[in-house]
Amino acid sequence: MSLPSDNPVLDARALRYPADGSVLQQANLAVGEGETVAVLGPARAGKTALLHCLTGRITPSSGSIWANGKAFHLFSADQKRSFQRRNYGLVPQRTGFVPELSLDQNVALPLIFAGVAREEAVRRARTWLERFELGEHVGRRAGSLPEESLRRAALARGMVTDPLVLFADEPLAGLDSADVAAIARMLLSIARSHGTSVVFFTREQDLAGRFQRRVDMTQGRTPNQPVPTAPATARRAPKSTPIVPTVVARPSVIVTSPAEQPMPPTQPTQPAQPAQPAQPAHPAQQPQPATLFSPPREPRSRGGLPLGAPDYLGAGRAEANR
Q1: Is residue 21 part of a domain?
Q2: 28-63 pLDDT, tens per residue?
Q3: Alpha-helix residue ranges (DSSP H) falling in the chain
Q4: In the chain, count of helices (H) and strands (E)?
Q5: 288 domain residue, yes or no
Q6: pLDDT band for position 221 (cuts 50, 70, 90)
Q7: How many domains does the chain have?
Q8: Cα 260 to Cα 120, 218, 270, distances in angstroms
Q9: Where residue 201 sits, what CATH number does that domain have?
Q10: Does residue 70 form part of some domain?
Q11: Backbone torsions φ then ψ of 229, nearest 5 degrees
Q12: What is d(CA 145, CA 98) in angstroms, rounded to the nearest whole number?
């Protein structure tokens, strides 16, 4: 087993989830730039929980996650989503393609969600489909294609935004060994040529052996994964000075009797009005909790598929009905 890069683009340390450690306990993972890593483990080993922690779907009870030199574990939910869109790609277990849309339209959806013009998004999608040897299927409806082609197209969709890190959650499960071997070779070749880091979760030892490095996971632990040293570029962001909003209480309303209220000299005498009951003082507003973390400016990134992700099925059908 080779050791991770000295300056990883992804660096998770001592992750624990939930607080009792029943799912994750002392899970560590470091991935270098352009490195391909397979996380190998049986069912219920904690692979999905680790994936969700790394991508911000869940927050670990303890531990830290450094992503591209930034303290990802300290980001707010909105900051995590923003970072994900620009840096991460995701290949889920289920392809989630919209049967009514063509294959290139399905692969173009992440770009369309990111604001890319539809024509440009489809052009890029076709380019990536050709890289995965699916050029002849670009105009066909996704519902008419075999499962093996859809799995390759899902990898193309994960790469279409040119992410810094591609996360793949057992995307080849259920395929025969020949297809698995061919698709894995294709993915690793493409990732290497584009300098994309890959974190590939699997249960298959033969498949895991094709990656540059393998991390074994059992019972929420990664026993053969050393806890990496802090990269030189990763620094905990300084907390900003707490800002407590100024509290100004609204004054009480004091009502005087009609005899005490002076009348304007130019107005005729008005009949006395009955005194109104005094209004209670408005209670002072309670100060809101101060923001304790101000994230640093994020480094330039290369784009990424939003994890957590837009609903491809629902949004794609809306796109098809336009």
Answers
A1: yes
A2: 999 999 999 999 999 889 999 999 999 999 999 999
A3: 47-55, 77-87, 103-113, 118-131, 147-159, 177-194, 205-208, 312-320
A4: 8, 9
A5: no
A6: confident
A7: 1
A8: 76, 83, 14
A9: 3.40.50.300
A10: yes
A11: -75, 160
A12: 12
